[in-house]
């Protein structure tokens, strides 16, 4: 039986050969640069499968749509929708981003510990002075909120540097995960007080929204570093800014913010102890194709499972939000 499949991410067009190898000969695969092209297609109403992230408004025009394979790990674009069609299966790309995002996390922490941003500023001003406060990951206690793929890959790397890693999960996990200790979410406040570095890899849900407010930030250890690669709204931006301005924290590594992007004159943009990037920690779509390859592997595996009527990988649970 023919399946009509839409690919709506331009950067995936160069992977036609791999994608076509994962489908049956009778399947019809359509490649679109964007949704406008898709909606102009005579086949759009009959499309069953989408590889990409169609807008919520577009989904309602696709009467035969039954499965969306996202290229993202986070699903709050859809899980936050009040009436997402319950007949559509949503699968994510969890497992594709852990390697590259964990590298981003470690590099950001090391840049702060080695004063690299301050040295960069000094270089521009013509200075040539040693800057106090040089530090190391050796012996640091690192609290990682989220023990999924990103959290696990980060823990593995940090342990190589001699850090002691503590994971926070929603429900009790097996001890085989690469953490020295694991606690549930109700232990966050107690663990914050002894953590030198706090890393947020949590998904964006109603439960995590505003989780790091003024009171929780105050519970953090003096001179700690806060890293957020999850969702911007997990952290109260104003309260984090206030804590950094008062010198309560050593610094922050932020790949996500609320709002995103921050206003042009926002104080966080001008702090030497803040690494601020435009939601790029998981990107590896260039010559390396590292992330792209893993996303495509997930899609191809799920296409085989769809053909055989088997449960797909990474099905999003709307009751949890991920």
Secondary-structure element pattern, one letter each: EHEHEHEHEHHEHEEHEHEHEEH
Terminal Cα separation, in Å? 31 Å
In the residues, how many domains can be counted?
A: 2
Main sheet record: 7 strands, parallel
Structural account:
The chain is of the alpha/beta class and 322 residues long. The chain folds into 2 domains: 4-95 and 287-307, NAD(P)-binding Rossmann-like Domain (Rossmann fold, 3-Layer(aba) Sandwich), CATH 3.40.50; 98-276, 3-Layer(aba) Sandwich (Rossmann fold). Helix content is 30%, strand content 15%. The protein contains 11 helices and 12 strands. It has helices spanning 16-21, 35-40, 56-59, 76-79, 98-113, 116-125, 149-160, 188-192, 214-218, 237-245, 290-307, and strands at 4-7, 28-31, 49-51, 67-69, 89-91, 141-145, 164-169, 181-184, 197-200, 225-228, 251-254, 274-276. The strands form 2 sheets. The protein has a 7-stranded parallel β-sheet with strand order 8-7-6-9-10-11-12. A 5-stranded parallel β-sheet has the order 2-1-3-4-5, with no helix packed on it. The two termini are 31 Å apart. The mean pLDDT is 92.
